[in-house]
Amino acid sequence: MPKMKTKRAAAKRFKMTGTGKLKRNKAYxxxxxxxxxxxxxxxxxxxxIIDASNDKNMKKILPYI
Length: 65
Known about the structure:
Elements (H helix, E strand, L loop, with lengths): L7 H6 L1 E2 L5 E3 L13 H8 L2 E2 L5 H7 L4
Antiparallel strand pairs: 1-2, 2-3
């Protein structure tokens, strides 16, 4: 069986935490920021953990991360 390939686009967007969960950045912080509240923009800065429903698919496309 050949080695599995990592999806490079996903590898650039996700990092593994120490407990084995995948960490991601939040969306909606690229442009049109004038109408968004400072509180929303501040909360969008923080990274978050991917949802459990996506966990199986993410482990498949990121086998070595």
